[in-house]
Design goal:
By secondary structure, the protein is of the alpha/beta class. Helix content is 34%, strand content 21%. Helix 5 crosses helix 11.
Length: 472
Amino acid sequence: MIPVSLFEGQKVALFGLGGSGLITARALMAGGANVVAFDDNPTSVEKAKAEGIQTGDLRQMDWSDCQALVLAPGVPLTHPQPHWTVELASKAGVEIIGDIELFSRTLQQEGRRAPFVAITGTNGKSTTTALIAHVLATAGRNVQMGGNIGRAVLDLDPLNDAPANQVYVVECSSYQIDLAPTLQPHVGVLLNVTPDHLERHGSIENYAAIKERLVAASDVAVVGVDDDICVQVAEQLTSNKTPIFRISGLQAPGADIGYDGSTLVDEAGRSLISLDGIGSLRGRHNGQNAAATLAVCQALGLSEEQVLEGFQSFPGLAHRMEQVGHANGVLFINDSKATNAEAAAPALSSFERVHWIVGGLAKQGGIGALAPFFPRVAKAYLIGEAAGTFAAQLGDTIPYEIAGTLQQAVNHAAVDAAEDASSEQGAGNGSGAVVLLSPAAASFDQFPNFEKRGEAFKEAVAALDGFVGIED
C-alpha cells in the first residue's frame, strides 16, 4: 500500500466504501489524515467501521475544516446530477478528488522518482495496459500495474520499498481522470475516443476533454490517430510542443508507428516488429495496442528486441479474444467481454472465417451494426434470450441455428468447425477453423456476468474430445 501523507493531521471526507474506497481510506490514515468515511450502503459502512476506519454521516459533518472530499469514481460528479456529497463539498469550497489524484500527487511529492505510465481510451485500454506491463516485466523492470485494471492504485507497492527500476503502469477511466485535476504521468497514452459514458459526462465534447487531459499533462504523449477526435488532440499537443508519438492500427498518415496488417511499421513504411504468429495480438485493434506499447517502451529505454520478446510471450486478457485451445484442428476463442455489437466487431474482423456463438441479453440495435462482417461467418449459433431477435436480424444472410444454451452451441460448433477444418474453406488468418464466442449481448439472461459466461465456455471447450490447451 502507498501511504498518502498529503493531508497529515487534517480532516478528509471519503465517500464510497467499495474495494478501492477501503484501500484509499487506509492509505490516507497511514499518512496521518483524519478520515471520515461514508457510503449510501449501510453494510459497507459497517464493514469499514469493523476494519477500524472512522465513519460518519457526511450530511451531518462540519465541512468548514475539511480539506478534501475523496470520491469513488463510480459516484456521479456532474451528470446526470452531482451526488449529494459533491453538492455539500462544493458549497463549502472543498476540493473533490479521487484515488488516482492522490497517487499522482504522492509521486510528485516524492520527486517523481519512478516512471508513471497512464493509459486511457474508449477501447483497448485494458489490453494495452496489460501488454505494456508484460513487456516491461519481461525486460526486467519491477512493474506495478493497477488503477482501472487489477489492483487499486493505492494498493501498489510504495517507492521506498522498491528497487530503482520500478515503474507504475496505470489504467485510467474517464471517471478517474475527471477526479484527477493535477494528473501528471511521465508517459500518457490516449488510444481512441468514441461516444461512451455520455450519461456521466453530458456530451462527447466533455468526455473527449477529460480524456485529453491525461495526455496534455504528460511529459511524453502517445496518441492514436485513427479517429477524428484524437487527430485533433494530437494536433493540439503538437502546437503546445508536447513530445508526442502518433500511433495507428491503420497506417494512418503521419503515424510514427503504424500497423500494416501484420507488422508494426514506421512513418515511411519500414518494418519495425512483426506480429505474425502472435495469436494474442490478432487484429488491427491489437495492432494499435501494440504500436502504443512499442512507443511507451521506447520512451522508457527498451529496444525493439526487448519489446518483441514481450509480445511473443503475452498471454492476452481473459475473456478478450482469449485463446482457449484447439480440438480437432479448430481454434476456440473466448471473447465473452464483447457485450454489444461494437465490442464484438474487432474479433469478427480478426478472422476470415468463423463459427460464431452469439446471443444473450440483447442491447439496443442488436447485431445490425455487424452486418459488414457476416460474410466472414460460416455459421452462427444463437443462444439466450436474444436468439429470436438475432435470427430475425440475420435473415437469410448466413446459416444459423438457435442453439439455446452455450453448452449446446459449443458442441454443435465444434462438430461443424472440425468438418470445416478439413476443407480449404477452413483456413482463416493461418489459424485453421475457428469457433468464436463473441456474444454481442449482455450475459444476465443466463449468467451473472460476462466472466462466468466465459468460464462456462472454456469448461465446455476443455471437455471436448481431442482438446489441447494453448499452454500444453
